[in-house]
Structures are given as structure tokens and as C-alpha cells.
Design a protein that fits this description.
The protein has about 260 residues and is mostly helical. It contains 14 helices and 2 strands, in the order ααααααααααααββαα.
């Protein structure tokens, strides 16, 4: 993400954030772009170093807080919502923004490792529940159904669905899958036997998304590695990290709910 943003230059999604904070005219767009890129690169380096140096984890956590909260607060801006569908909760460019809740969750758990297990479990899985519920719910709209059409058509794992159903029905089925995954994850918090099925079902959403990086050619660029679409897709890796944190928390017998 960081290297790609650095190579991309002026990025419209970063401009939407700086517009929200009314700071766009204070510095050239390239400066804001470089700051965002360096924040991602620094986060990646700190994450690697923190594996062997636990004392760096609070530093990583505070950086992740900044990286996540800056775009998340911009959800209060009108530009994130689809006016044609009535605004909130019809989310437009904010679909990529709500994924930052995944980093926010990780940051909180790094800062507060001694949280009561009940709280830690919900904090770890909240971003996954949110994105599956929200973007899954959007699948029932015609706008979202058309929006994912090219992605689905490109995928050898999913394109067959259009041979059986039309664009909207296919999108509805994907939406139902996402919502069932939400219910299964919530149930898994209380019934350990459902943990693995729940993680596999929800995790497949994010794994399949990564295959679009290969199957959907506009997601990659020889000049910038990832395009804006590629940035949107690769963020789903963060939710796999959320699931990895969720599993040991919910499977630990101590302080069971």
C-alpha cells in the first residue's frame, strides 16, 4: 500500500480526506500523498520489528490509530455517501474507508492487551461484522450489483454465477452469504463448535477478494503496482488479521462468556 501510494502521486481518495479537514490548499497534493505513503510504510516496518521487540507495539498501535482515525472521521463528510440512494447508510467512496476499522481494532488490542476477554473478543471481530453487514447489505442495491459485475466476471471462482442468475440475483446471493457469515460469527462467540466454520466462511470473503488482484487486470499497474481498485481490494487482508486475533480469544476457556 505504502509504496504504491508513493508511486501513484496525487490520489483522489487522499484528496477527499484533506478536503474534509479543509487542509487541501495548505500543501501540495504530493506532500499529503507522501505522508500517507510513509505512514503505511512505517506501520509495516514497525509491525515486523515488533514481532521480536514487544516494546515497539505501543508505538505501532499509536501509528495505526492515526492511520485509521484520520480517514474514518471523514465518514462524517457528505462525499462518502450516495445521495441518489438517500445518503447514509448508502455508502459510496466510504466503502474503502470503513475498512480502516480493522486497523483501529488491532491498535486498540495492542494498546490494551489486558482488556477483559469479553471486550477483546468484540473489539477483534467488530470490523469484520461491520464490513460484512454493511457492504453485504449494499449488495441488494442495483448500484452495488452493477459495481461488482466486472470483478465477478473476471473471477474463475465466481463468473459461473452469471450463467445461472442475472446480475442482481447474483449480487443478492453474495449479500445473503455475507449476512449469514455475520450471524455465524456472532453465534461462534457463544458456541465454540461454530468458531472454525464461522472463520472459514467469513475468511473466504476476504481470500476471494485477493484473487481479484490477479483476475481483474485494472487492479494492478506496472507503474504503481496497485491502482485505486487494488488499494480497495488489498485492504481486505486487514480483516484476516482481525480473524486471526479473534480465534485465540474466543477459544480460550479462561474468562469464557
Amino acid at each position: 500500500m505504502g509504496l504504491s501510494i508513493l508511486l501513484t502521486g496525487s490520489h483522489k481518495h487522499i484528496t477527499l480526506v484533506t478536503d474534509f479537514y479543509a487542509v487541501t490548499d495548505l500543501l501540495p497534493a504530493s506532500v499529503f500523498n507522501a505522508l500517507a505513503a510513509l505512514a503505511f510504510i512505517a506501520s509495516a516496518i514497525l509491525a515486523l520489528l515488533a514481532i521480536r521487540a514487544p516494546e515497539l507495539r505501543p508505538v505501532l498501535a499509536y501509528l495505526l490509530l492515526a492511520v485509521s482515525l484520520v480517514p474514518l472521521v471523514s465518514l462524517f463528510g457528505q462525499s462518502r455517501w450516495i445521495d441518489a440512494l438517500g445518503g447514509f447508510p448508502a455508502i459510496g467512496s466510504g466503502q474503502g474507508v470503513i475498512k480502516y476499522f480493522a486497523l483501529l481494532s488491532i491498535a486498540v488490542l495492542l494498546l490494551r492487551p489486558q482488556l477483559p476477554r469479553r471486550q477483546a473478543i468484540w473489539i477483534s471481530i467488530f470490523p469484520v461484522l461491520l464490513v460484512l453487514l454493511w457492504i453485504g447489505g449494499m449488495k441488494f442495491t442495483a448500484l452495488e450489483a452493477k459495481g461488482i459485475e466486472d470483478l465477478v466476471l473476471s473471477s474463475p471462482l465466481m463468473s459461473w454465477m452469471y450463467q445461472l442468475w442475472d446480475v442482481q440475483t447474483t449480487s443478492n446471493i453474495i449479500g445473503v452469504y455475507d449476512l449469514v457469515a455475520v450471524l455465524l460469527l456472532i453465534a461462534a462467540i457463544y458456541y465454540q463448535k461454530l468458531v472454525l466454520p464461522a472463520i472459514l466462511m467469513s475468511g473466504m470473503v476476504f481470500v476471494v477478494t485477493q484473487t481479484f488482484l490477479v483476475s481483474f487486470s485494472p487492479s494492478l499497474s506496472a507503474e504503481t503496482m496497485l491502482t485505486g481498485t487494488g488499494h480497495f481490494l488489498i485492504k481486505d487482508l486487514w480483516f484476516i488479521a482481525n480473524l486471526a486475533l479473534f480465534y485465540p480469544l474466543v477459544m480460550t476457556e479462561k474468562d469464557r462468556l
